[in-house]
Amino acid sequence: MTLPIISCSGPALTVGYTHGRLARSQISNSLQTYRALFHSMAGLSWDRVLKLAEEFERSLAETYPELVDEMRGVAEGAGVEVTEIVALNCRSEIALTAPMDGCTAFSWKMGGEQWLAQNWDWKPAIKDSLIVLDIAAHGERPAMKFVTEAGIIGKIGLNEHGLSLTLNALRTPSLSPTLPPIHLFLRLLLQQPTFSSARALISSLPGLASAAHILIASPDGAVGVECTPQGFAFLEPDERGMVHHTNHLLTQELKEQSGERPLWEDSGPRLERVRELSWEAVGQDPSVEGVRRVLSDRKGGRTGICRADGDREGGSDTLFCIVMDCTRKRAEVKVGRPDEDGEVVVLEF
Questions:
Q1: What pLDDT score does 138 carry?
Q2: Considering the chain, what percentage of its residues have pLDDT values greater than 90?
Q3: What secondary structure does DSSP assign to 176-226, as a single string?
Q4: How far is the C-alpha of 43 from the C-alpha of 36, rounded, in Å?
Q5: Which of the 8 DSSP states describes residue 250?
Q6: For position 241, what pLDDT does the model report?
Q7: Helix H or strand E encompassing 256
Q8: How many CB atoms lie within 10 A of CB 137?
Q9: Alpha-carbon distance 144 to 153, whole Å?
Q10: Dist CA 100 CA 149 (whole Å)
């Protein structure tokens, strides 16, 4: 599988139009895949999905008009309705109680170098939707490069300042449509110039529309952020300079407030295993190969850190592994599982 790189520049509407035009076939696959997933996993008809997307669009037009402009551009370029693109960008909120993408992520600060890495696990059908969005700086918006599902304008990657993000899905019954949806909030974070401004953005909000964990790292440090409609909890690095997360809340207060419904039974064992493997690496010089080795672990079998469970109903596969060197503002994306042959795409500034 080849990971297309979609290069965009200019204001929001133009960026969106270029994204939509150049990734038209991948967006078509995103829409086809999520139309089926919304029905099979959440019992939602496509008409109902679009009605929910309209509600989000109205709220977002008031609070984040530039993001709506970009989504309109994507729709125009791809030849689809804007509500369909909004539905993709609000997919986590629309499919609220359904099991969504899993993931294992960790950050590591060693010897003045800051690293951030993740396996992104999801349905094999979506792999043909994966693209890299390479967005040039414009005005106050920094340049950014991130891996995403075509049509979605914010996800996993880094900006020109080395500010880097990963995402872990969580599942709760809580929803607040007036707050930023997860994927659009990732985009807002990628537009931040500094680690402190990213933290300030989080602190300025009461919560997100639905639940997720976002791991933020930059040359200045790292922090995990558990996000729910009820609020945020910051997970600071441990004594080894690391933050780890999988797919369940670690903060007891948020667990109780949000009514969390654990996403994957294997989330706890994966968390313990990634901690064990990464702690064993303390004292070694960080490297892409060393970090990728941690994420190649298969001790948990088909549902381990390196996941191969996509042929089972409700299962998922590791579709890509990303290792980001925040200090050097460079990332390597290994398409497919990290321990198998496959394309490696370099994102750097």
A1: 98
A2: 85
A3: -TTSPPHHHHHHHHHT-SSHHHHHHHHHTSS--SS-EEEEEEETTEEEEEE
A4: 10
A5: -
A6: 93
A7: helix 252-258
A8: 12
A9: 11
A10: 14
Would the pLDDT of 313 be above 90? no
Taking the C-alpha atoms of residue 294 and residue 292, their distance in angstroms, rounded to an integer, is 5
pLDDT of the residue at 100:
61
The model's confidence at residue 216, banded by pLDDT at 50, 70 and 90, is very high
Give the span between the Cα atoms of 67 and 290, in whole angstroms: 37
Beta bridge partners of 134: 7, 145
C-beta separation of 75 from 84 below 8 A: yes
pLDDT of residue 168: 95
Please count the other Cβ atoms lying within 10 Å of the Cβ belonging to residue 311: 9
> In whole angstroms, what is the distance from residue 165 CA to residue 176 CA?
23
Neighbours of 23 (CB within 10 A): 25
Phi, psi angle pair for 18, to nearest 5°? -65, -45
Quickly list H helices, 281-317.
288-295
Mean pLDDT of 250-260: 94
**348 bridge partner residues:** 330
**Residue the block writes with tokens 């690293």:** 115
- Give, in order, the Cα–Cα distances in Å from 37 to each of 32, 40, 122: 9, 5, 12
CA distances from 66 to 70, 112, 141, 271, 282 (A): 6, 36, 11, 37, 43
Rounded CA-CA distance 86/64 in Å is 13
Q: What is the rounded CA–CA span in Å between residue 4 and residue 148?
A: 11
Sign of the four-CA dihedral 298, 301, 306, 311 = positive
What strands, in cross-sheet order, belong to the sheet with 221-228? 5-8, 130-135, 144-149, 156-159, 164-169, 212-218, 221-228, 231-235
Average pLDDT over residues 315-338: 96
SS3 at position 254: helix
Where in 76-186 does DSSP place strands (E)? 102-110, 113-122, 130-135, 144-149, 156-159, 164-169
What is the torsional sign of CA 237, 338, 264, 154? Answer: positive
- 190: nearest Cα among 132, 152, 143: 143
SS3 content of the chain, % helix, strand, coil (to 5): 35, 25, 35
